[in-house]
Amino acid sequence: AQRVTQPEKLLSVFKGAPVELKCNYSYSGSPELFWYVQYSRQRLQLLLRHISRESIKGFTADLNKGETSFHLKKPFAQEEDSAMYYCALSGGGNTGKLIFGQGTTLQVKP
Amino acid sequence: NAGVTQTPKFRVLKTGQSMTLLCAQDMNHEYMYWYRQDPGMGLRLIHYSVGEGTTAKGEVPDGYNVSRLKKQNFLLGLESAAPSQTSVYFCASSYTGSGTEAFFGQGTRLTVV
Q: Which member of A97, A98, A102 has the closest CB to residue B40?
């Protein structure tokens, strides 16, 4: 079964500390993985996707097929990074359906 | 450029009442989706559409119906609302069905009492 798991509901760090939001997936095939972010009172928006291999707002995520993980990392957290983060897997079949993890709330304290 | 717009933003329904949520996108996207967001469960797909005139069931379709009569609009209907349908509903659209960004609406907070 296709599944995305984010084991932490809440991650609280101090400003300047490193951040790692965990994401594990279950998928038989070549996965398409994304991180979406929802800032307070804003709509859900794409942060990054694994096929782009890009860094957005200092965040990176590497697909590890062996460990079936797609963890989101940032070396130095900023207060403005506080938000809800969702890892998502494209369900295949060229439909664009997304399977979301449960979400992790990142709280960056001053 | 409005992107994806949902109407209404908030609604309170009594059990058994019906309502329709409207999603409109102005990006000429082919693909549109309805998700519901519940605490601790992330977003789950209700129904989706891969083009005008087409609809398909997602993960949690029971109690909902949809229609895509025009490319830019995707309607979500609740025929007989139940408290279990209390949730935040998100509409999204994407240009293609593979590897592209999904654009989300601002959400509709629905409470069924």
A: A102
Residue A96 has which token pair? Answer: 């664009």
- Sorted by where each begins, the domain ranges of chain A are 3-109
Rounded to 5 degrees, what angle do the CA atoms B12, B18, B24 make? 80
Contact by Cβ (8 Å): B4, B91: yes
Domain A3-109 has CATH 3.40.50.620: no
The answer to whether the beta carbons of residues B45 and B34 sit under 8 Å apart is yes
B18 to chain A, minimum CA–CA distance in Å?
A: 26
Count CB atoms within 10 A of the CB of residue B84.
10
**Is B97–A96 a contact, with Cβ atoms under 8 angstroms apart?**
yes
What pLDDT digit, counting tens, does each position of A10-40 carry?
999 999 999 999 999 999 888 899 999 999 9
Which pLDDT band, with edges at 50, 70 and 90, does B70 fall under?
very high
